[in-house]
Amino acid sequence: MKAVRLTLICHGLTEAQKSGRLAHPEDAVLALAEPLEMAAAEVQVLRAPERRASETAAWLAAQASIEPALADCDLGSWQGLALKQLQLEQPEALAQWLQDPYSAPHGGESIAQLVERVDAWLAGFDGPGQWLAVTHPMVIRAVLVQLLGCPLASFQRIDVMPLSRLELSFTGQWRLRLN
């Protein structure tokens, strides 16, 4: 069994994040103050299908394969809405979604479904070598909850900042790698 090293990187900062809006698939990343270091030639790069993941991956590698399982949580009718708007117009639904990981009042994917999707992807991941995967804060939170065996309620207690990295290794089981 060959070892796997998988680094999940959160996409770059978007205007939606700066202004307190929920993500939309067409959100673009803002310019960087300094360029990112390109991935080494032996590192295989994956990315989520959304624009912000594509743009971030382009800063890191000349080529990145789309991995649908790395897609952001489907927020249904809430995509692109400001949190303040939801607090005013749908406070009970927002509170329910934040407190109950099985709820999806927006008509999209629940947190529990996201965690299940990400867990299935990790369980089937069998590519030896070094990997870099550009994805979203919610996907990285799902990986942490699943990998550490945390209750789903802990999902809302994790902050993932733009361009942050989560390093994992696999030799029979997934392990968190702290540097």
TrEMBL record:
Originating organism: Pseudomonas urmiensis
Signal sequence bounds: none
Superkingdom, natural source: Bacteria
Name of the protein this chain belongs to: Histidine phosphatase family protein
Source lineage: Bacteria, Pseudomonadati, Pseudomonadota, Gammaproteobacteria, Pseudomonadales
